[in-house]
Specification:
By secondary structure, this protein is α/β, with parallel strands linked by helices. It is about 45% helix and about 20% strand. Helix 13 links the parallel strand 16 (about 405-410) and strand 17. The longest helix has about 35 residues, at about 585-615. The two termini are about 30 Å apart.
């Protein structure tokens, strides 16, 4: 890629800021000559080169530079995968600036490097100063010092331009990150947000200051600078305050805000700017901005105030937000990072919101049989880390830029990683292995659910998901028991009547529970706390019987989803069951939660379908948005289109692994997702020798199931070697491992990262492979920016994620 134009921009920026840094002689004897202030030069250069942005409306969002603010779903007490995923997405979605629109952007010629803003400032000042001082002159005129500065610029560009052309500076906080894209580069901003697992929303960073040093004058200046770009527009200003958002989000939001967005709120009746309450300062802002911001009164639900602001002329494409975040410090013995003492006041213009339905449902997709799934936020982030390395490698091999990877999850469960991998690598061959007999059906049903449009989900909710129907559950179960607990009495096609459908699927489940509770013959006996808990666990461990699976196959999709949802309610509510009367309550609780999630999904789907309908087939306006992108409540937003799920073409009967392996070796493997049922994943991997480009997996730990210690020992003793044997050259292995448990369970050493890392090193050597690392610069903060990454669970098992790239030695 030709860097002539980006270099031209760098030269122009340096020449532009030099005059501001030159200081005339003073009367003081220690300063009798013209001098150049390195501090002023660095400050002005960062402002022009890093901080100033080129935002000019939605059409510029995929060709943007400047200061961009990214807000995460979870803070660093939960995971550091979030910030590493963001850096990977920035790296793989950045190109050089173009002088004319007709040029082919291509990738940067060198990998994007990252630096903290402080380190960037220090390097720039030191390198410029050392080159400037080497001239060894005293300057008695402004002309002479300017000439010396220009010579320094020429030398700096000649020898060090690549560093400044390719380095992205950033400042990270506890729950967010401020990324500064230099003027030499352009970022596909909306793609970064839309494909991320952990980015909640993002926009222009307008103002960031230590909360104790915020001034009203600075705040107004920064807001007006943004408003002056389009003086005719008004913007809704949103203080993310506990008083306005807390009560509604706690009661109505299906999203988990704990250890994330709940930490960036503030109390606007208590917070002060220059001894003036924020509430008073906000009341003054419409006057300070000449009526170009609309400030909510805080008297009603914030969504109502937003709609009113649009009616009053506020822009739909962006909103201005006030949030508060903290610095970072390491506090945990496990190497996790905690909230620092420094607090920051942040103002950003939200331009994009990530409304992915996978982020909403996380690990709670409707088709589900056991609590062993990682959430889509983490899975998507791990896929993005793999994608980043894939792009970096194949950018160096232009002849293979169009090659599609083979991605495998050796323990795929309900298909979390498979879905995320196909969405990130469309048209690729994605393979999932699992011993669960229902695995292919679970994956197919989840994909089918996500192809549903607004009307179909509304029908599912209306026909089957009303919590009031749970009250009829006991009558159906008692009738089932009276008929001898005979599963053959369950109709192959359940009636459309919601109450009878619920009784039907509940009876099918209790047929399995009775089979796993010898001696229990009545509802009273099966719902004894110990008997019920043991029966549920036995069903989890042994899976549903062949007879149960056959009956399920006869159900339509909506009824099967109801079956899985009722089962999840019983699994998670098993410890609350102390008699038949408790059964409707635990099922009702799960139905309520699922309904809340689906209603939230409906809201986004309605915005998407409504916006697409508004554009119309004959709309002549420029198509700014890609599929799945739409006008959201506060800004542009994105979701995954139902059609994208349909492209996965899953088979409920599963695929043949040996046949797939043969097709991969012939380079004729069909695109799509293929779920293969296997007896032992570690042994089955032998069929995929030298076939796999990326393996991302979360192996079983034996915590939520009854897997024996012997089986776990055998699995971990053979899996790592088998996984390495499947990898092609530059193949990647990403494995989530148990780190520590908050439930009192002891983690065997052979399952920990310390043991697995040694296995990888040893087996790689045996198999003639070598572990490699990509050279890159990042801030030197131990454990934050390099694997193994961490993911902490508040109540269960926290994970440690290892990531290796291997080549043939």
């Amino acid at each position: 890629m030709d860097t002539q134009y980006p270099t031209k921009l760098l030269r122009a920026a340096l020449h532009h800021v030099i005059p501001a840094a030159i200081e005339p002689p003073s009367k003081r004897p220690q300063k009798p000559h013209w001098t150049l202030s390195i501090r002023t030069l660095a400050r002005e250069f960062k402002r022009v080169w890093l901080f100033n942005d080129n935002y000019a409306g939605p059409s510029s969002l995929d060709n943007i530079h400047g200061s961009l603010y990214f807000l995460f779903w979870k803070n660093l007490s939960v995971t550091n995968v979030s910030i590493n995923e963001l850096l990977s997405l920035v790296r793989s979605n950045t190109t050089y600036a173009l002088e004319s629109a007709g040029e082919n952007p291509g990738p940067p010629s060198a990998p994007i490097q990252f630096s903290s803003t402080d380190d960037y400032t220090s390097f720039f000042g030191n390198i410029f100063n050392s080159l400037f001082e080497s001239i060894h002159e005293q300057y008695d005129t402004e002309t002479k010092i300017l000439a010396a500065a220009r010579i320094t610029i020429d030398h700096m560009i000649d020898k060090y331009s690549g560093i400044f052309l390719n380095t992205v500076a950033f400042d990270y906080y506890y729950t967010s990150c401020l990324v500064h894209i230099p003027a030499s580069l352009r970022l596909a901003f909306s793609r970064v947000v839309a494909t991320s697992g952990y980015v909640h929303s993002a926009g222009l960073g307008l103002y960031t200051r230590n909360i104790e040093k915020v001034t009203h004058a600075e705040l107004v200046l920064r807001i007006n600078e943004f408003l002056d770009r389009a003086p005719e527009k008004k913007y809704f200003l949103v203080p993310y305050a506990e008083e306005m958002f807390g009560p509604w989000e706690r009661d109505h939001s299906p999203d988990s805000l704990r250890n994330g967005l709940d930490g960036i709120r503030f109390y606007f009746r208590k917070h002060s700017i220059n001894r003036v309450t924020l509430q008073t300062a906000l009341a003054q802002l419409p006057l300070d901005t000449k009526g170009r911001v609309i400030v909510p009164k805080g008297l009603t639900y914030y969504g109502v105030e937003r709609k009113q602001s649009v009616a009053d002329g506020a822009s739909k494409e962006a909103t201005i937000w006030f949030v508060s975040d903290h610095g970072v410090h390491e506090t945990d013995l496990h190497g996790y990072f905690g909230r620092g003492t420094k607090q920051y006041f942040i103002v950003y213009a939200q331009l994009w919101r990530n409304c992915s339905q996978l982020t909403l449902f996380k690990e709670r997709k409707p088709a589900w049989v056991a609590p062993v799934t990682i959430p889509h936020t983490l899975s998507t982030a791990l896929v993005n880390l793999a994608h980043g390395n894939w792009v970096r490698w194949y950018r160096r091999r232009p002849c293979e830029q169009d090659r599609r990877p083979v991605v495998v999850d050796a323990f795929c469960g309900t298909g979390t990683t498979l879905i995320d991998a196909y969405l990130r690598f469309p048209g690729s061959t994605i393979i999932g292995l699992d011993s669960e007999p229902l695995g292919p059906r679970l994956f197919a049903d989840n994909v089918a659910f996500f192809t549903y449009g607004h009307t179909q989900i509304e029908t599912l909710l209306t026909n089957y998901m009303e919590a009031k129907y749970a009250n009829s559950l006991l009558d159906g179960l008692r009738k089932f028991v009276m008929m001898g607990r005979d599963v053959s009495t369950i109709p192959g096609e359940p009636p459309k009547n919601p109450r009878r459908a619920l009784a039907c699927v509940s009876s099918l489940i209790f047929g399995e529970l009775f089979a796993n509770a010898p001696g229990a013959e009545s509802l009273e006996e099966i719902t004894d706390p110990l008997v019920f808990s043991n029966a549920v666990q036995a069903t989890i461990d042994g899976g549903f019987s062949e007879r149960c699976r056959a009956v399920l196959e006869g159900f339509e999709l909506d009824v099967r989803l109801l079956f899985f949802i009722v089962w999840r309610g019983l699994v998670y509510g098993r410890h609350a069951v102390n008699g038949p009367a408790d059964l409707p309550l635990v099922v009702q609780s799960e139905l309520n939660r699922c309904t809340q999630e689906m209603r939230a999904h409906l809201g986004v789907l309605g915005e998407f379908e409504g916006y697409r309908g508004m554009l119309g087939a004959k709309d002549s306006s420029p198509r700014i948005l890609e599929p799945g992108q739409h006008m959201g409540s506060y800004s542009l937003a994105s979701m995954i289109t139902p059609a994208s799920f349909g492209e996965m073409r899953p088979s409920a009967q599963g695929a043949d692994l040996r046949e797939l392996s043969t097709l991969i070796h012939r380079q004729s493997a069909p695109p799509g997702v293929h779920v293969c049922r296997v007896v032992d994943s570690a042994l089955a991997l032998a069929e995929l020798a030298e076939c796999v480009d990326i393996m991302i997996t979360d192996p079983p730990y034996g915590f939520n199931t009854g897997d024996s210690a012997k089986r776990m020992r055998e699995l971990y003793g053979t899996f790592i070697r088998a996984a390495i044997g499947t990898l092609t050259s530059y193949g990647q292995l990403i494995v989530a491992l148990p780190d520590y448990a908050r439930n009192g369970r002891q983690i065997p050493f052979y399952q920990t990262r310390a043991a697995v890392v040694q296995q990888v090193i040893s087996h790689a050597e045996e198999l003639g492979k070598r572990i490699i690392h990509f050279d890159e610069t990042k801030p030197d903060r131990s454990g934050l920016f390099s694997p193994p990454y961490y993911w902490a669970a508040p109540t269960g098992v926290s994970r440690s994620v290892v990531h290796f790239t291997l080549i043939k030695a």
